[in-house]
Amino acid sequence: MTRPPSTKQLRNWDRRYLWHPFTQMQEWEQEDPLIIERGKGSYLIDTEGKKYLDGTSSIWVNLHGHRHPILNRALKRQLDKIAHSTFLGLSNPPAIELARELIRIAPNGLTRVFYSDNGSTAVEIALKMAVQYWQQRHPDAGRKNTFLHLKMAYHGDTIGAVSVGNIALFHSRFKPLLFPTLAAEPPYCYRCPLKLAYPSCKIACIDPIEQILKRRHRELAGFIIEPLMQAAAGMIPQPAGYLNRVRELCTKYNVLLITDEVATGFGRTGKMFACEHERITPDLMAISKGLTGGYMPLAATLTTEEIYQGFLGTYDEFKTFFHGHSFTGNPLGCALALANLHIFKSEKTLVRLQPKIKAMTRLLEPFQHLPHVGDIRQQGFMVGIELVQDKQTKKPYPLEERVGHKVTMEAQRRGLLLRPIGSVLMLIPPLSTSLSELKRMVEILHTSIATVTQLPKSGAGS
Ligand SMILES: Cc1ncc(COP(=O)(O)O)c(C=O)c1O
């Protein structure tokens, strides 16, 4: 047997052959990349045996910890049957059973499941379904071929998803490729665009949204929103009642509500889906990330019978939804997703999560005394801590200063892996994280922020 390559060799090959996502490769090539070889529970272990707490749930996907025996077993069992067969013209048992389970747990009224591979494709499918639905079901409904979304929205990196996204740093270069959309101010309470405060504002930021819907609903196929928390915007939570109002307005103005639960779904906010907090049912819902417990790429777009019916007809009416991917309904992913949902039941994941959410709130309290912590935002097990240069004026750190990155590097040295968005530190632990692991994560984060932000500028973590 040939010996596996050494860490040094792997690092050299990584720098020589790879191009990493959201990464300035010129810098990467100067560094020694951390190479994760194994995982166990809330820990990631590198090729040199060093353990790190997984503070991002491997970019928001892992729910029950790494190498969970039930998930491992489900994958191996399915592998002994078949890894993949096409979903075009065929079906398979795990995909069928999973669809049934998803409809059982989804907000009431969602009745159909369309599979794909990742969050971006789940969003693309929702957008395409919405446009085609209006064309076929209500040809007299006007030219309903664009979308309303919030500013700072993030719905993925494919062109349709970028079109309804609004993060200048990521998206502005691709403007020539994007379709036109309408964007509304998000309820960013820390920097309220209306200079009001919740709850006395009575969610006044919803009024401009109603104005847009009133004037432009004839053009709007849908309103796409990350329910409860705009995650990649830097964890911008929506105040209680906001989503409910959005639902009411979409119904009133005959615009489909698309909720993107890619980040918020599967317990992240403390309930199975964020929509449940406001007891609403969207017309379309995109899910991915946690769907397989964070093991494999799988996504789904769920919709209502009303929308599904809009696609029915004889073949020669050509109402078919002409969309599909090579790995649609992949049996390995679906078997994992079924096991994931089984764990939610057998381990009472959501019940056991509640005290940990409360503990997280308590553990985060001391952060408010740090001189450069501007805002602490939490929804369930999703946390964003916004660092600011000046706490009084809320003056942001210049992006070039990379304060979030410096804190992340400091935390990594101390055994916690994070991924910031600009100056917002994000903590998104696996739902299975124990109380003591959670305490350790928060402790490291606190020390790392204090170390980096209180050092004289030239020495800050670099
Ligand atoms: C809300 C939301 N939608 C869509 C996506 C895109 O998912 P994916 O990276 O799987 O394409 C993400 C990814 O972070 C997300 O947070």
Outline:
The chain is α/β, with parallel strands linked by helices. It has helices at 7-17, 25-28, 57-60, 69-79, 93-105, 119-137, 159-163, 168-171, 206-216, 242-252, 305-309, 331-346, 349-364, 403-413, 435-454, and strands spanning 36-40, 43-46, 51-54, 110-116, 146-150, 182-184, 220-225, 229-230, 236-237, 256-260, 284-287, 299-304, 373-379, 382-390, 395-396, 416-417, 424-427. Pyridoxal-5'-phosphate is lined by residues 118-120, 123, 154-156, 226, 231-232, 260, 262-263, 288.
Explained architecture:
The chain has 462 residues and is of the alpha/beta class. The chain folds into two domains: 34-64 and 350-459, Aspartate Aminotransferase, domain 1 (Alpha-Beta Complex), CATH 3.90.1150.10; 72-346, Aspartate Aminotransferase, domain 2 (3-Layer(aba) Sandwich). The chain has 15 helices and 17 strands. The protein has a seven-stranded mixed beta sheet with strand order 4-12-11-10-7-5-6, with helices on both faces. Strand 2 and strand 3 (51-54) form a beta hairpin. Pyridoxal-5'-phosphate (PLP) is lined by residues 118-120, 123, 154-156, 226, 231-232, 260, 262-263, 288.
